[in-house]
Design a protein that fits this description.
This protein is about 15% helix and about 35% strand. The chain is of the alpha+beta class.
């Protein structure tokens, strides 16, 4: 794995394994056989696995204990250099291949996540959820945050209750939405050393990376390859555990009544939630859904008894909140406080949107080399255009443009990514999600 191959698209410049306990360090680049690095929209750090062949008693020389540093440096075919620092979480496997060599599998986590695990935060913060997230990341993890900071909730005063820095970041992220109730995500990328902070509306309104050259899946491509000037090829795909509306109803994310109990005055503030009106209609009216992809991923006309499903109050959920806790001490709210009754609805909408976004996941495997060419992020948090042919055997087999599968096809947000660097090639597995189905005639 020492030279760049145009098909593979990368080389490992170095992979330095070291420890703070002594001066011992070693470059594993020549011994590595596989690297898997994972991004996830709901995780503000990377995880991964490194596989290498140990013929020099490396584990023994380093005296590996599960805290060692692994500094990875990759170079792409376009000379972009990617640098990431990980910490060893554990030795996942150690398999003897013969008497004098061993196959080692290491589980790793991005360094700031390991550091976070050893730190306790019990501190008061004042500011918007976005600025508090940025302050925690900077002061405890030495990580800068970039993205969209226009959180609706405004200034708050919170006391982080004995959490790790990353747990505190997630805690504040869960409280943040934009003015329309679109939830925020904090995540980390292989191609950037910044933490990303964006609300879902920002992600949905991005142009697809491959707008003019969709990813297409076609088994016919095995014998009659698709036109690679028009399409990228999906090598395989998988869908499982999808369309679980039953669970969403049970959890109160379709139709429910939420009672926000104000401990300051003892009165509940009832808020009725209707997913069609509060989520899907709102997203369409605010142009978060594309004009050719606005078929709600929800059965809007289905009735239970005499009411539509979204009008049923399937669950009553009570939450404790407060108001005017800091009245007279500054212009800010407590963690769960809202000024108006309608503002509580944004909390519910943010949670519901996340759940409905995860309702129809689709996992695809593709050649990863094109994703490293620009040096910018083309994976998690971006939009991809996918095309699938339908399963109607009565369509004209030569006129596949008429046989598009509108349920599977369309523009997807990349929710999670597995970067697989192997000796022979670089593959990507992309977990893609969408909140509405495609309605156009072609892609």
């Amino acid at each position: 794995m020492s030279t760049i191959d145009s098909q593979r698209g990368f080389t490992i410049l170095s992979a330095i394994l070291s420890t703070d306990r002594n001066d011992a360090s070693i470059d594993l680049a020549a011994a590595i056989t596989d690297i898997d690095i994972y991004e996830h929209l709901d995780k503000p750090y990377l995880t991964g696995n490194f596989v290498f062949v140990d013929t020099h008693a490396i584990v023994q020389q380093i005296n590996m204990m599960g805290i060692e540093k692994l500094e990875l440096k990759l170079e792409t075919v376009t000379k972009n250099v990617i640098e990431k620092t990980f910490r060893i979480v554990k030795i996942n496997k150690a398999i003897k291949t013969n008497d004098r060599s061993e196959l080692i599998v290491l589980d790793v986590v991005e360094e700031h996540a390991f550091i976070s695990n050893a730190i306790n935060v019990n501190k008061a913060y004042t500011g918007t959820p976005a600025t508090i997230i940025s302050n925690i990341a900077s002061s405890f993890l030495e990580k800068d945050v970039q993205g969209t900071f226009d959180t609706f909730q405004g200034n708050m005063k919170v006391i982080v209750p004995n959490m790790t820095p990353i747990a505190a970041i997630k805690w504040m992220q869960q409280r943040a939405t934009n003015k329309d109730g679109m939830p925020y995500y904090v995540y980390s990328l292989l191609t950037s050393n910044f933490l990303q902070l964006n609300h879902l509306g920002t992600l949905l309104q991005r142009e697809p990376n491959n707008k003019d050259r969709p990813f297409v899946y076609s088994q016919a491509g095995i014998h009659n390859p698709v036109d690679v000037t028009k399409y990228h090829v999906i090598e395989s795909y998988k869908q499982e555990n999808t369309e679980n509306l039953f669970q969403l109803i049970s959890d109160g994310y379709v139709g429910a009544r939420y009672n926000f109990l104000n401990v300051s005055d003892g009165y509940p503030e009832p808020v009725d939630f209707d997913v069609k009106k509060d989520v899907f209609d709102m997203m369409k009216n605010k142009n978060y859904l594309g004009k050719n992809q606005d078929n709600y991923n929800f059965p809007t006309n289905t009735k239970i008894k005499s009411n539509t499903l979204n009008e049923q109050r399937s669950k009553v959920i009570s939450r404790i909140t407060s108001s005017n806790l800091y009245e007279g001490f500054g212009d800010f709210k407590s963690y769960g406080e809202e000024i108006k009754k309608s503002d509580y609805n944004k909390q519910i909408c943010g949670e519901a949107i996340k759940k409905h976004l995860a309702k129809s996941p689709l996992s695809i495997s593709v050649n990863g080399a094109p994703f490293l060419i620009t040096g910018s992020n083309l994976t998690t948090g971006t939009v991809l255009r996918l095309k699938f042919f339908d399963s109607n055997t009565f369509d004209d087999a030569e006129n596949k443009e008429l046989g598009i599968d509108k349920k599977k096809s369309g523009d997807y947000i990349v929710y999670a990514t597995r970067h697989s660097f192997k000796i022979e090639k670089y593959d990507l597995n992309l977990l893609c999600t969408k909140i509405a189905d495609y309605t156009g005639e072609n892609l």
